[in-house]
Amino acid sequence: MRFYFCIALVFCALNSQSQSLDHYLDIGLKNSPLLKEYNLQLQSALIDSLKVLAGYKPQVGVSSNIMYPTAIWKFAYDSAITDGGHYSALVGVNQPLFNKRFIKAKMESVALQKLTSLNNQKISETELKEAITSQYLEAFALQSKVEFEKSIIRLLNEEKSTLKMLVDKGIYNQIDYLNLIVSISSREIEGKQFVMDLKNNIAMLNLICGIHDTTSVNLIKPEISRRTSFDPASSPLMMQFRLDSLKNSNEKLLIDQQYLPRISAFADAGINAISPQRLPYSLGASFGLNFSMPLYDGKQKQMDQNKIDLVEQSRKNYKSTYQDLFLQRQDQLKQQLELNDELMKDISDQIINLEKLLTVYKTEINKGLIRWMDYLDIVHNYEETKNKLTEAQITRLTIITQLNYLK
């Protein structure tokens, strides 16, 4: 059974693949349906810009009308109104004139829509990268615990035969050997729990990235560099505030243009007659100009602009608050990083001392000069300290991730 168990372990090791953080980031960004949606929105914005240009080109349409007024006894429409009937089939053309400023304002509106989609895409991409990185770090921390637990079990197993020999010689008691067996068994159970948690975390990582795979993987230790500049103006949320300001200005411009005079040229050609007998002689054409300009609407223009002013004031309030929170959060993360680095140094020094102490204890055990339980206590202390170092290393990478993706 032990032979087959070893074969299974070798088979699993051969089938496990080493994957890096960059691998999951690339696949996660590629599979994200939200990022794909933003790409479609950009294509839609291009269509909107073409629609704006098309709306100011000549508009051609066809209209036809056949109307014959009926008469019941002496009751009928007045012939001065109906002309006895109406038969028409016309092709009309309408062309807005002097429309460059209208086109410019609407094109700016479409351009802002495109920039908003691009910025939202950047925000979503940042959030997705942060989520993937955080989940990867959590899974890697569990993988480190699994590997360390295996090393501790190997260390205790190496001492098992030595302790058995010392028990047989009467240097240590049988209860010391039983305590070692129980300690190894407890660690194997705890190691299995870590393995289960690791598999669940990798499954969650695959879920976030849209990966349909249950193959065992070996996560490579991530190398996350700290971003050097932390300018709030470079934040995508700050960019959104600027875009909102431009949108408000553009909305005001569009409102102003609704009250400007508009001129368009029109022309039509076709048949327009009052009786079927006149149809062959009623072929003709007409053209002219159309002028329109609103004069009074109950001060709706001022009301609409006042609403936009309120929206702009709200935007400024949110921007000011966000800037303060951004800088405050940035300072907190930098302080946490400094304190964590100090903690890592202290833990590393403690591990060096514990390793020296373990070496001395292993020598003394062979001579029977120390209690076996004291040795187990040192092993437990060593394990807890190593775990603390691993947690501090993961915490450091987590803080750097939060700094790098600070929005």
- The CA-CA distance between the termini, in Å, is 55 Å
- Determine the fraction of residues in helical runs and give it as a percent range: 55-70%
CATH class of the domain at 21-32 and 101-259 and 299-404: Mainly Alpha
What fold name goes in the CATH topology slot of the domain at 21-32 and 101-259 and 299-404? Outer membrane efflux proteins (OEP)
Verbal overview:
It is a single chain. The protein is of the alpha+beta class and 407 residues long. It has a domain at 21-32 and 101-259 and 299-404: Outer membrane efflux proteins (OEP) (Up-down Bundle). 69% of the residues lie in helices and 13% in strands. It has nine helices and eight strands. The strands form three sheets. It has a four-stranded antiparallel β-sheet with strand order 2-5-7-8, with no helix packed on it. The chain has a two-stranded parallel ribbon with strand order 1-6. A two-stranded antiparallel sheet has the order 3-4. Strand 3 and strand 4 form a beta hairpin. Helix 2 (21-31) runs antiparallel to helix 5 (100-168), helix 5 (100-168) runs antiparallel to helix 6 (174-209) and helix 8 (300-367) packs antiparallel against helix 9 (372-404). The longest helix is centred in the N-terminal third of the chain and has 69 residues, at 100-168. It is elongated, with a radius of gyration of 39 Å.
